[in-house]
Write a structure and sequence with these properties.
There is one protein chain. This protein is an alpha/beta fold and about 80 residues long. The protein is built from two helices and three strands; from the N terminus they run βαβαβ. The protein has helices at about 10-25, 50-60, and strands at about 5-10, 30-35, 60-65. The chain has a three-stranded parallel sheet. The mean pLDDT is about 85.
Length: about 80
């Protein structure tokens, strides 16, 4: 079974948009994926606070995509 998740970049704008999208599609969105690989952010960055609060309130999981390749740009 596939379940839609919202991919989130570590910026305030992206986090705000992800929460809005999740609220508007509450029946369909089943979680979030935070993209940390190849960007300078960590999972405990304050930029994610709103997302974490929303996910906790709704009982939604959060996945972390860290990625790893031989090249620093992800190619």
């Amino acid at each position: 079974m596939l379940a839609p998740v919202v991919t989130v970049e570590p910026t305030t704008k992206e986090v705000n948009e992800a929460v809005i999208m999740a609220k508007e599609n509450q029946k369909d969105v089943k979680g979030f994926k935070i993209r940390l690989g190849y960007v300078k952010a960590s999972a405990d960055s304050p930029v994610f606070s709103q997302l974490y609060d929303y996910a906790e309130a709704e009982g939604l999981p959060i996945l972390f995509h860290t990625g790893d390749t031989a090249f620093s740009d992800g190619t």
